[in-house]
Amino acid sequence: MTTVFAPMPLTQERRLATTIPGPRSLALAARRSAVVAAGVSSTLPVYIARAGGAILEDVDGNRLVDLGSGIAVTSVGASAPEVVAAVAAQVADFTHTCFMVSPYEEYVQLCEVLARLTPGTHAKRSVLVNSGAEAVENAVKIARRATGRDAVVVLDHAYHGRTNLTMAMTARAMPYKTGFGPFAGEIYRVPASYPLRDGLTGEQAAARAIDTAQRQVGADRIAALVVEPILGEGGFVVPAPGFLPALAAWAREAGIVLVADEVQTGFARTGAMFACEHEGVVPDLVALAKGIGGGLPLGAVTGRAELMDAVHAGGLGGTYGGNPVACAAALAATALYERDDLAAAARAIEARVLGRLRAVAADVPAVAEVRGRGAMLAVELVRPGTLEPDKDSAAAVARACLAAGVLVLTCGTWGNVVRLLPPLVITPELLDDALDVLESALRALGA
Ligand code: PMP
Questions:
Q1: Is 235 a domain residue?
Q2: Computed over its alpha carbons, how large is the radius of gyration of the chain?
Q3: 87 and 66, same structural domain?
Q4: Ligand 1 atom at shortest distance from the alpha carbon of 163
Q5: What is the atom index within ligand 1 of the atom nearest the CA of 133?
Q6: Do 239 and 290 belong to one domain?
Q7: SS3 of residue 291 by DSSP
Q8: How far is the CA of 445 from the centre of ligand 1 (A)?
Q9: Which residues line ligand 1 (CB under 6 A)?
Q10: How many CB atoms neighbour CB 1 within 10 A?
Q11: What is the largest CA-CA distance in the chain?
Q12: I need a labelling partner for 207 at 20 to 30 A (CA). Which of 44, 50, 102, 263 fits?
């Protein structure tokens, strides 16, 4: 008999009980510095005791509004009751066998869901892994094996992870790469589309990227072109319309495997189940993680059957990949994206946030652009009157929000972008409350 534990509902209201961080968080920070590696840093200096929906409650009793979702993970809300129940039931049944040793239905069932949800109606296969970086690594392995080619083309401003191969694929040196080389070979970087900064149409930006790849690598050597449909850590940069379709057409003609890294953009986050759908692009392989698992660690590669099945038996896998507890969580989370139409919820968040923040942008010259799709939204900050990135302003805005109990993250190649990734289940009242705080932090930058 399985006992299912329902999480305590957490009132969806911001509440400050102490200054932030409070005394218990400060005590934990002191313990931490004695035992946790200094290379692991945290945005929010408070320690979380529990969470629900879009509220994080810390060890001092502060209730913070979560506009980060643990970096786009808890899109269905923190500790969504359906996820908690599925995890509890699965833990009681069995926690692990290793799918490569003795398989189980949950893995198969999740691959069925991924085949149905990801773009395109072609026959698909999936492999389940533990993280976004591992998903990207496996997509590259599969593309190389299927094409017999070595080279991998990635975009400027890209972020693909922290493993050796994905560090090589990631653009920004500090903090991701500095001192960690030598890096994997055969990775080639081409310019992205960054409408605010390059002023190019999507077609022009694609032509520039393709020309660079053809001149510096040669299309017949390229196994994979790996793209984030919206640049994530690179600054929530939405490419100009036409950029992705032009790259996809070139890849198709040249026999290059198009890999969409939907690790951050996937699962309803951008107002469609996958961000590629906004431009009708059907990738050959999709790298998935974050939102897939409702908070449990899981990643996947889903793609064309003939590419996926080009890999010999035993060539893909890992001890924990597709762990049954993570699969149970993902089955519950993916059911919620569909049942509650969370893509529509993301579009409603977009309308609410863009309306507010574009009005602020009109008054605050430090705001160069308010952009994004669905519940993946950002404000790029510059020195007024220029396009010079202003990292200090982004840090000041994030700090002011944290002090008032609203968690926002920063990103961008120059660290000058404030990004919003609220859980898609955030209530309109809580979102408005958080936006009041963000608006005053932005207005404090000066008119
Ligand atoms: N790709 C993208 C687009 C990401 O945003 C991230 C994580 N921020 C990764 C890959 C790496 O995922 P993970 O941290 O789970 O390895």
A1: yes
A2: 22
A3: no
A4: 16
A5: 16
A6: yes
A7: helix
A8: 31
A9: 71, 131-133, 136, 159-161, 228, 232-233, 261, 263-264, 289
A10: 3
A11: 66
A12: 263
What domain range includes position 140?
Answer: 83-339
Query: Which of 73, 264, 285, 288 most suits a substitution to test ligand 1, by most atoms within 8 Å of the C-beta?
Result: 264
Measured CA to CA in angstroms, residue 76 lies from 25, 63, 153, 399, 426 at distances of 27, 19, 33, 26, 9
Ligand 1, atom nearest to 131 Cα = 15
Residues 190 and 274 in one domain: yes
Tell me how far the alpha carbon of residue 181 is from its chain's centroid. 25
Ligand 1 atom nearest to 71, measured from its CA: 8
Full pLDDT tens readout for the chain, 447 residues = 444 555 557 999 999 999 999 999 999 999 999 999 999 999 888 999 999 999 999 999 999 999 999 999 999 999 999 999 999 999 999 999 999 999 999 999 999 999 999 999 999 999 999 999 999 999 999 999 999 999 999 999 999 999 999 999 999 999 999 999 999 999 999 999 999 999 999 999 999 999 999 999 999 999 999 999 999 999 999 999 999 999 999 999 999 999 999 999 999 999 999 999 999 999 999 999 999 999 999 999 999 999 999 999 999 999 999 999 999 999 999 999 999 999 999 999 999 999 999 999 999 999 999 999 999 999 999 999 999 999 999 999 999 999 999 999 999 999 999 999 999 999 999 999 999 999 999 999 998
Distance 287 CA to ligand 1 centre (A): 10
Q: How much distance in Å is there from the Cα of 132 to the middle of ligand 1?
A: 5
Three-state SS at 351: helix
User: Residue 153, SS3?
Assistant: strand
How many Å lie between the centroid of ligand 1 and the Cα of residue 158? 10
Residues 45 and 87 in one domain: no
Mutate-to-test residue for ligand 1 from 71, 237, 263, highest number of ligand atoms within 8 A of CB:
263
Closest-CA residue to 51 (of 40, 39, 62, 37): 62
**What is the domain-level CATH number for residue 408?**
3.90.1150.10
Q: How many domains does the chain have?
A: 2
Q: Which atom of ligand 1 is nearest to the CA of 297?
A: 15
Pairing of strands 285-288, 299-304: antiparallel
